[in-house]
Amino acid sequence: MAGYLTTHVLDTARGTPASELLIRLFRIEDGAKRQLAEMTTNDDGRTDSPILPEDRFETGTYELVFMAGAYLRSQPGSQDGLPFLDDIPIRFRMEDPDAHYHVPLLLSPYGYSTYRGS
């Protein structure tokens, strides 16, 4: 089994999955960022397929960038103007070539958290 990367986003302020949130994946090598993927979350707050599938998986340093500002502005009842949070970068390493890495984002208008999921 080859490794792969998945993610999902939960809107903890609303208690729902965060749908229609744009996510970009970058590989970091020698200080340079190279974009590998761009996906939007579905109604379950997940991407329809792994953001980094088995056939493209390599160990190394990566960065997921969650476009939270656009999502937060689009929500009913959002305040006019710019939200407190905008793009949220999460940089991490994947070392096991056969592992499933899952990096979720728990999001609210004024804070977020993440962890290595399963």
Quick tags:
four-stranded antiparallel β-sheet, Hydroxyisourate_hydrolase, Immunoglobulin-like, four-stranded mixed β-sheet, purine metabolism, EC 3.5.2.17, 10 strands, globular, 118 residues, single chain, 6% helix, hydrolase
Structure explained in plain terms:
- By secondary structure, the protein is mainly beta.
- 6% of the residues lie in helices and 44% in strands.
- The protein is built from 1 helix and 10 strands.
- The longest helix has 7 residues.
- It is globular, with a radius of gyration of 14 Å.
- The protein starts with a strand and ends with a strand.
Quaternary structure type = single chain
**Overall 3D shape:** globular
Tell me the total number of β-strands: 10
* CATH H-level superfamily: Transthyretin/hydroxyisourate hydrolase domain
Strand content: 35-45%
Number of domains: 1
Catalogue the unreliable spans. none
Termini Cα gap: 16 Å
In helices, the fraction of residues equals under 10%
Q: What value does the Rg take, in angstroms? A: 14 Å
